[in-house]
Structures are given as structure tokens and as C-alpha cells.
Specification:
The protein is α+β, with helices and mostly antiparallel strands and 253 residues long. It has two domains: 67 residues, Orthogonal Bundle (Arc Repressor Mutant, subunit A); 177 residues, START domain (Alpha-D-Glucose-1,6-Bisphosphate, Chain A, domain 4, 2-Layer Sandwich). The chain is built from ten helices and nine strands. The strands form two sheets. It has a seven-stranded antiparallel β-sheet. A hairpin with a 2-residue loop joins β8 and β9. The longest helix has 15 residues. The chain is globular and about 55 Å long. 31% of the residues are buried.
């Protein structure tokens, strides 16, 4: 959190985050044109933001794209805001301020755990319910197998999809068709990629939600920061996240 606070203390770096908020997945050249400074200067600021986890970079051919990563911002909110503001905290920092519609969204978080334990937390239905709004994931977890996300209070599946790639404990790629409402269902199928990488005594978890429609509703991807925050909290402390948003479907988990 100290790195996050230091990174956001600089107005230029905040402006870079705002630029990615407005248009995610920009190259260095695109970002450079927005600021009256040298290319090395912009590169230095981007490096500080990346070290703080506030942006994530991905290669696309010869280009290096920069994505806003709202997960650290969500963690700051959960640690410093929610316990003081209680019921109206979620509205105060609505995820619309963290995210903007895009064809691709990338989320990154570091969790002190092993890849095997993290993989279990992602695929075990009972553990998944502890941080995924009380919903269970049912699947055989083999390539080509279907999966369903269900909740005891829902009349039917909330999400259906296919496990496109299953490589434990390193990578999981899934198609995703949201079914929790008519508007979500009309958005069609998108794709979610979970990538697990051991880093020292921790794991870097990168979740990429792509193949979204150009005007995809925020409800399809807006919950990821809260889900990943809950996952980190449970794996590192054994406790459940108690922010208002994390309890929106009740605490019968």
C-alpha cells in the first residue's frame, strides 16, 4: 500500500491513470502525446505505476500495451475507507470510477500463498463461494468441459461457460456467458483467463477479461476487484471480506 500511495502522490502519474481510465490498453507512444515531457520521463512514471501494481503491461506483437489495474485501489478502499464509512462506502467509490468500458480488462494482484493453494481456491466450489459473492462453481475442470456458477438463492445458473484451457496450477482459460439478468445475457460470450505465477513466497495472479463487446456493460467485469480482494483476504488471513459490496448477496457463504 505504501507503493500505491507514493505512486499516486504525483500529479503526472495520476494523469496517466486518468488517461488509461478513459482509454485502456494504450501504447507508450499514445500516452507520450498526452504529456509535455520527454519519452524517458513518461517511461519513468509508467515504471513507478507498474511497480506499485496500478498498471499492467501486456505484449501484443511488437507493441507493449498498458492497462489500468484497479485492484490495488480496491484494496486501499477495503483497508482504509470501508471500515469508516460502512454502508455508503461502496457507493462512494463505485467501481465505475475504477473502470471504463473496453474490449479487454486486466487485473493483477499478489497473494502470499502457493500456486497449488491458489488453484484450489479458484476451482474448489466451497472455497470459491467464500469470496465470489456466495456463488459456487461446478465443473470437472478438464479441457472442453462445461462449468456453471450457481447461487442457492438464484433460480438458475448465474454464469455458464466452457473450460477452454486447463493447466494446473498455472493457467485457466474459460468462456463466460452471464445469465443473471436479461441485459447481461444479451451481452453474449466473453473470455476470462487466470494466470498464476510464483514470485518468492507469493503468487502473482493476473485475470484478463477480454472478448467483450465494444459497449459491454460494466456489470460483466466490474466485480473483479472485489472478488480478487476477497480471494487475497481469505487466503492470507482465513477471514471473509466484510465490505458492503462483498455482502450484497448475503453472508450465507
Amino acid at each position: 500500500m505504501e507503493l500505491v500511495f507514493k505512486a499516486m502522490a504525483d500529479p503526472t502519474r495520476r494523469a496517466l491513470l486518468d488517461a488509461l481510465f478513459r482509454e485502456d490498453g494504450q501504447t507508450l507512444s499514445m500516452l507520450e502525446t498526452r504529456f509535455e515531457m520527454t519519452r524517458p520521463g513518461v517511461t519513468k512514471h509508467l515504471r513507478i505505476l507498474e511497480e506499485a501494481g496500478l498498471i499492467v503491461t501486456k505484449r501484443r506483437g511488437r507493441e507493449k500495451l498498458h492497462f489500468l489495474n484497479p485492484v490495488p485501489i480496491r484494496l486501499v478502499h477495503d483497508r482504509w475507507v470501508s471500515k469508516y464509512t460502512e454502508e455508503w462506502a461502496a457507493g462512494l467509490v463505485g467501481l465505475k470510477n475504477d473502470l471504463e468500458v473496453s474490449m479487454e480488462k486486466v487485473f493483477e494482484i499478489y497473494i502470499r500463498t502457493t500456486p497449488e493453494r491458489l488453484w484450489e481456491a479458484i476451482t474448489d466450489p466451497d472455497i470459491r463461494a467464500k469470496y465470489h459473492f456466495g456463488s459456487h462453481i461446478e465443473s470437472e475442470w478438464t479441457p472442453g468441459s462445461p462449468y456453471k456458477q450457481i447461487h442457492p438463492d438464484a433460480p438458475g445458473p448465474l454464469v455458464e461457460g466452457e473450460n477452454l484451457e486447463v493447466d494446473p496450477p498455472r493457467k485457466l482459460v474459460q468462456s463466460m456467458h452471464a445469465l443473471w439478468g436479461p441485459e447481461a445475457s444479451a451481452e453474449g460470450t466473453s473470455r476470462v483467463t487466470w494466470e498464476l505465477e510464483p514470485i518468492g513466497d507469493s503468487c502473482r495472479l493476473t485475470v484478463t477479461h477480454d472478448q467483450l463487446g465494444e459497449d459491454a456493460s460494466e456489470e460483466l467485469y466490474g466485480g473483479w476487484p472485489m472478488i480478487l480482494s476477497g480471494l487475497k483476504t481469505w487466503l492470507e488471513t482465513g477471514e471473509l471480506l466484510t465490505t458492503p459490496g462483498s455482502l450484497m448477496y448475503g453472508d450465507d457463504r
